[in-house]
């Protein structure tokens, strides 16, 4: 069964996309786009002010490295340090056993 669509893809010149990215990064850096602050100043600095809302982050590491402790602390801090921002956290914990790896 064929699906017909009148929607066509739109294209931007690379310079236009580059300018949009630079403007976005500059707005994050200046605080015009609000970020969720964490307790770690260096982390906030590296992430241009903190964690961006509506973004998926993946925390990965070897077993026992402290991922769960880090995330528990982070989730608590995000609510405590950003009371003026309305947001929701969805947290998924997935684990792969050694015998599941091929």
Can you give a write-up of this model?
The mean pLDDT is 85. It is built from 3 helices and 2 strands. The two termini are 37 Å apart. Helix content is 37%, strand content 4%. It is mainly alpha-helical and 102 residues long. A two-stranded antiparallel sheet has the order 1-2. It has a domain at 35-100.
Separate helix tally: 3
Q: Output the structural class.
A: mainly alpha
Low-confidence stretches: none
Quote the distance from N terminus to C terminus. Answer: 37 Å
Shape: extended
Number of DSSP-assigned strands: 2
Helix/strand order, N-terminal first: HEHEH
Rg calculated over all Cα atoms: 19 Å
Percent of residues in helices: 25-40%
Average pLDDT, all residues: 85
Physical arrangement of strands within the biggest beta sheet: 1-2
Percent of residues in β-strands: under 5%
Largest sheet: 2 strands, antiparallel
Oligomer: single chain
Compact description:
The protein is mainly α.
Throw out a few tags for this protein:
102 residues; mainly alpha; two-stranded antiparallel ribbon; 3 helices
Layout: helices, strands, pairs:
Elements: H1 14-30, E1 35-36, H2 41-46, E2 51-52, H3 67-81
Antiparallel strand pairs: 1-2
